[in-house]
Amino acid sequence: MRLEALAVALPEVAGHPNRIPFEGVLTLIDEPSTRPPSGARGHRVILTRAAATAALPSLIGMAVDYTPSWDGHDARRKCGIITQADIEGNRLKVSGYLFGKDFPEVEEQMRQGATGSMGMSYELADAHVADMNASIWTLTRATFTGAAILLREKAAYRDTSFQLSARRCRTTGITAQASRTAGRHHPQQQLETRQGKETRWR
């Protein structure tokens, strides 16, 4: 089993009306996306384990956003914060808090929507692609700049998820667990840099 984990401490405030715990699967690693993300020029993508592990700290403190139609990204509708990120197997899992008092419509959607209907989509900047001529782009480096909550059927990875959590998010401080794996490490590859403005892929 391979596990990496990071979390940031927040002071506990019992019954805080603007902190609604959530948890979700943001993406799968070392697996091609189900369909091309927006911004990937029609290419399906693979986020390598090495890239995901290196970028894990950049997720902490980033916002989650949404659109009223639950089908994309809107960085101006930041409705929550990610406080924990873990890699378990091939799943990159996150948890944090929704701003329930500020965005009651988001909490309502989570509580009234069909179980398992919601998913997630990461937002990246400075993504590096190993071979831009390949049919499936392999991301070897990136920085997470946030994530979107959207309908699972609209996400590039169909096996993502998002739901409210009964448990509190980790508040014991910033932690990092060492990798434990029986698998092999992925070799470093020659990278091509995609410079320019932030790219959001869902």
How does this structure look, described?
The protein is mainly β and 202 residues long. 10% of the residues lie in helices and 39% in strands. It has a domain at 3-8 and 17-28 and 59-125 and 141-176. The chain has helices spanning 49-59, 104-112; strands at 3-7, 20-28, 44-47, 63-65, 78-88, 91-98, 118-129, 136-151, 161-164, 175-176, 192-193, 199-200. The longest helix has 11 residues, at 49-59. The two termini are 27 Å apart. The model is unreliable at 169-199 (pLDDT under 50).
List keywords for this structure.
mainly beta; 10% helix
How would you summarize what this structure contains?
With 202 residues, the chain is mainly β. Helix content is 10%, strand content 39%. About 15% of the residues have low confidence.
**Number of separate strands:** 12
Tell me the distance between the termini: 27 Å
Gyration radius over CA: 16 Å
Element order, helices and strands? EEEHEEEHEEEEEE
Q: How would you describe the shape? A: globular
Mean pLDDT: 84
**Low-confidence regions:** 169-199
Structural class: mainly beta
Strand % is 35-45%
Helix content: under 10%
Enumerate how many helices there are, as a single number: 2
**What summary fits the major beta sheet?**
12 strands, mixed
